[in-house]
Amino acid sequence: MVADQGIVGSGVGGDSDPEETAEWIESFDQLIDQRGSDRARDVLGRLLARAGGRSVGLPSVVTTDYVNSIPVDEEPEFPGDEEIERKYRAWMRWNAAVMVHRAQRPEIGVGGHISTYAGAATLYEVGFNHFFKGKDHPSGGDQVFFQGHASPGMYARAFLEGRLTEEDLDGFRQEKSKAGHALSSYPHPRLMPEFWEFPTVSMGIGPMNAIYQAQSNRYLQNRGLKDTSDQQVWAFLGDGEMDEPESRGLLQLAANENLDNLNFVINCNLQRLDGPVRGNGKIMQELEAFFRGAGWNVIKVVWGREWDDLLAKDTTGDLVKIMNETADGDYQTYKAESGGFVRDHFFGKTPATKDLVADMEDAQVWGLKRGGHDYRKVYAAYKAATEFKGKPTVILAKTVKGYGLGSHFEGRNATHQMKKLTLQDLKDFRDHLRIPIPDEALEADLYNAPYYHPGPDSPEIKYLHERRKALGGYLPERRTKHSEVALPGDKTYEVAKRGSGKQQAATTMAFVRLLKDLMRDKEFGKRVVPIIPDEARTFGIDAFFPTAKIYNPKGQNYLSVDRDLVLAYKESIQGQILHAGINEAGSVAAFTAAGTAYATQGEPLIPIYVFYSMFGFQRTGDSFWAAGDQMTRGFIIGATAGRTTLTGEGLQHADGHSPILASTNPAVITYDPAYGYEIGHIVHDGLERMYGNGNAVSGADPNVMYYLTVYNEPIIQPVEPENLDVDGLLRGIYKLKDGHSAENTPRSQILASGVAVPWALEAQRILAEEWNVSADVWSVTSWTELRRDALAAEEEAFLNPDAEARVPFVTKRLGDAPGPIVAVTDYMKAVPDQIRQFLPQDFATLGADGFGFSDTRAAARRYFKIDSHSVVVRTLELLAKRGEVDADAPRQAIEKYALLDVNAGTTGNAGGDS
Question: Can you give the residue ranges of the Pyruvate dehydrogenase E1 component middle domain (predicted)?
Fold first, then answer.
């Protein structure tokens, strides 16, 4: 990027009349001097408007000069005691670095990052002392997404506040070996549930979640659930992190919804992990253009106050021109060199700029700070950001990575990976920060350099506490006390129990009918947050449009094309549905914000995210990990699930593996229900687990996400059976239908889940009528939960060899079942194979491995050999091997059913939209 692209008057290009230009510039300077920046801005705006009216072509102004956005004359007075704040900021920087250094002693060596917080301390401390509101503030407090690699600084502050001890700091990254006094490496709420609120270290997830947190705050406000009008969301990010597509990909939502409660603070130290972010370019200018184009308010904090006089004396514009043209790679080099080097290589580029520093010592040149290290400049930016209305704000603050850590660290390419300080590094750092620790204390043990705390009664610590008290308490902090949730009664679930009568209905529609009744509940319904990408009509959720309405903070200011239809598209400020567009990543971010409102806002919301099954865990698995870390509660509905159910769409829409992907996330409870009544019991159980009163007794973790796969293939939904084994249904398996009980009949077991259960029942009938084989059919609602229970039983037995081993639930249910087992699903074989090792019987799996394709359901199921006749043949093969049926029966069956002919398949129907 050209640094001064589109800047009028920056010295770029030729000038047909320099003398006249100089007069205009002189007049403009006089206007600023006499009337101030506001008047100058007003005149410029009117001139630009007039130029447009006279059809004068102007370059697009996408970036401004490489100087501070806020002029010196507009900077507010700094309200704090800068010297006191500088003192304890230095103590924090020391303690943060020492904590990481001590964790690197040879017998521990767990790592840590020193340089990020060293460079960002000012950015955080201005916020902590003057802006970040705690949870006891009348507003309810701000939400702060801390940059993950800066976590040592947050621990160092909590140490000075008395919230953490030296023993705690020494437990950094030793979460089991120092249990009770352990600190997680990064912001992990699940690991430190009373401290951290937001996980941010999977790069790009923090920016997305911060945007949707700001939206969620406004959603609560506009729906009348909580007053969040005075809350701010702060997201601290790295300039290297902004290369992640996720970091930039959702900026439009914040602009479109005018989220002026959102502030991004990007720590522009010009470095990523291995080198410069833009060695040949300028990342601050690039980000300014990008955010400005996305509709954000942009504030640049480039230079500290020491530059103010130099810029005021730059009458020729040469200094600004050099600032504009110098590449980031050179700026990085300057901070790794010396004042003399900067004088020669930066200021020495023109005679005029060289003269600007002629009277300055090299030490003074070296002391020209970057803006992100200047309290006044950062304060001015934060104040402007919080007062700006109508747009979200991004603050681009220029800093030095490893600031103050010495020449081995500052601005070096490898500084991110450097964890250890030499003895001389420690001494230099101590001297730079003016920490009252003697040499002998450092020399006694290199890896046991002392922390510094002046004592709770020191003026500085009292001041620190006073500032936090005025702002509403300490941060970061996570609280879980929330408003009581009135859960719906049994009547709400009746729609799921009574089946579909003579009408066919897919499990997707069975779920939507249940959701409709949940939302109708007088007390509970307001807490439900349906979240849908641009597929509501596919899932039948368009039925909610006219009543629940789609959330839009601006309402609906256009005449809807389908306004006369019963299911017209309807947007509203009070809308309940979050309709995210073609945007799974944003949908999961919205899901996370809503699903943690019980903690962030004390007002529980029940997010129900319905998505195209293939585009769930495959596309956004990382976001679901972050949701689990943040202890999100809610329901994830993978609609149009299965590899052969969504027939027409083909490979990229044919989901045969999401339950396996979901099984890797410990916070996800995965179910593959076959019928509406199963869905009803699962949802009821999920709500009870998340917000019911039973967890105190059962000890079940309420911080879970229930993942249900539902299908678009219509079937007759049966009425809930009498004496249903609800416990088995919820734990993962129950017997759906016994086989016929004729004497001396070969016995077998068929395990199926989801859409495959009707195939299993058809196979049961064929085996009985055509082969005299009795097969019990089991509905496996959760292969994953059965496996988790069995693995837990194995672990218990492993650690308690003298105790009687607990029998896994799946083994209890099936261990004595007669005959072989055939398991079938619309997923890859690995899904049912999760329980294979826990059953003693001969076990065969039928699954849809490989890639999907477009075809009829019957042909696809015959191709994958998962249809009813494939179940029959595989059962006969296992029985023949045991000598319980004729050895030739499997071959006869293959020929009878033309098993190798995809056109001979009959399993499934052609109904259901895809």
Answer: 489-714
| Residue 124 amino acid letter | Y
**What confidence tens digit (pLDDT) does each residue in 437-486 have?**
999 999 999 999 999 999 999 999 999 999 999 999 999 999 999 999 99
- Supply angle C-alpha 15, 20, 23, rounded to 5: 125
Give the span between the Cα atoms of 680 and 686, in whole angstroms: 10
What would the two tokens of residue 290 be? Answer: 């990008």
The burial of 127, by beta-carbon neighbours within 10 Å (0-12 exposed, 13-18 middle, 19 or more buried), is given as buried
User: DSSP 3-state assignment of 669?
Assistant: strand
Q: How far is CA 749 from CA 660, 675, 710, 765, in A?
A: 23, 20, 24, 13
Q: Which amino acid is at 529?
A: V
Asked whether residue 550 carries a pLDDT value surpassing 70, the answer given is: yes
User: Which helix H or strand E contains 776, and what residues bound it?
Assistant: strand 774-780
* Tokens encoding 722: 């009498």
Distance from the Cα of residue 690 to its chain's centroid: 20
Side by side, which strands form the sheet with 262-268? 143-145, 233-238, 262-268, 393-398, 297-301
Task: Give the Cα separation of 764 and 758 in Å (integer).
Answer: 10
For residue range 310-365, list pLDDT tens digits in order: 999 999 999 999 999 999 999 989 988 899 999 999 999 999 999 999 999 999 99
Nearest alpha carbon to residue 402 among 108, 152, 717: 152
How much is the average pLDDT of 388-393? Answer: 98
Radius of gyration for the chain, computed over Cα atoms and rounded to the nearest angstrom: 33
Measured between alpha carbons, how far is 198 from 473 in angstroms, rounded to an integer?
18
Burial of 466: CB neighbours in 10 Å, binned 0-12, 13-18, 19+: exposed
pLDDT exceeds cutoff 80 at 11? no
The single residue listed with the structure tokens 């829409």 is 653
Structural tokens at position 837:
């090792």
- Give the tens place of pLDDT for each residue, 239-284: 999 999 999 999 999 999 999 999 999 999 999 888 889 999 999 9
Say how many C-beta atoms besides its own lie within 10 A of residue 837's C-beta.
11
Give the separation between CA 384 and CA 379, rounded to whole angstroms. 8
Specify the pLDDT at position 914.
42
Mean pLDDT, the chain, whole residue set: 93
pLDDT in tens, 722-759: 999 999 999 999 999 999 877 889 999 999 999 999 99
**Count of beta carbons in the 10 Å neighbourhood of residue 697:** 7
Q: Which amino acid is at 234?
A: W
Element spanning 430, H or E: helix 423-433
Is 136 strand, coil or helix?
A: coil
Pairing of the two strands 733-737 and 297-301: unpaired
* Residue 62 neighbours by CB under 8 Å, 6+ apart: 5, 6, 288, 289, 292, 293
Q: How far apart are CA 627 and CA 599, in angstroms?
A: 13
Pair type for strands 733-737 and 774-780: antiparallel
